[in-house]
UniProtKB/TrEMBL annotation:
<keyword id="KW-0547">Nucleotide-binding</keyword>
<protein>
    <submittedName>
        <fullName>ATP-binding protein</fullName>
    </submittedName>
</protein>
<dbReference type="GO" id="GO:0005524">
    <property type="term" value="F:ATP binding"/>
</dbReference>
<keyword id="KW-0067">ATP-binding</keyword>
Length: 113
C-alpha cells in the first residue's frame, strides 16, 4: 500500500474515533466529554478525553506492524505517570497490550457499547 493511502486510512480511523466520541457525548450530555490533543515534551497524545472525573488517553494508528511504530505509539502513554486508562487503537487483530496500556482493534472498538 502506498504511503499516501496509509495516511488516508489513518485519518479515517481518527475521524471514526472522534465521531464515536461525539456520539457518546450526545448520550452523556449531562456530564459532557472534553477532547484535547495532549503534549508531553516533544511527543503528542492523539486524544485526551475527560468525562467528569475520568480521563482517557488514546493513540490511534493505522497498523502496529513495525517496532518503531509500536514504540512511538506506546512510549508516550508509558511516560504518563497516572492511573487513568490508556488505549492504543489500530487495525491490527493481534492484541499488543503492554504495561497496562490497552490495545484495541478499531472495528472492535467501534462496535463496543
Amino acid at each position: 500500500m502506498m504511503k499516501e493511502q496509509k495516511k488516508i486510512i489513518l485519518w479515517i480511523c481518527i475521524t471514526l474515533y472522534f465521531l464515536k466520541s461525539k456520539q457518546r457525548k450526545v448520550h452523556t450530555l449531562s456530564t459532557g466529554y472534553e477532547i484535547y490533543v495532549g503534549k508531553l515534551d516533544n511527543k503528542e497524545v492523539d486524544f485526551v478525553v475527560i468525562d467528569g472525573n475520568n480521563k482517557f488517553y488514546i493513540q490511534v494508528t493505522y497498523l502496529l506492524s513495525e517496532q518503531s511504530t509500536i514504540d512511538r505509539e506506546f512510549s508516550v502513554l508509558e511516560q504518563i505517570n497516572d492511573n487513568y486508562t490508556k488505549i492504543v487503537i489500530s487495525m491490527d487483530t493481534v492484541n499488543r497490550s503492554r504495561n497496562g496500556i490497552i490495545h484495541k482493534n478499531i472495528k472492535d472498538f467501534l462496535l463496543e457499547e
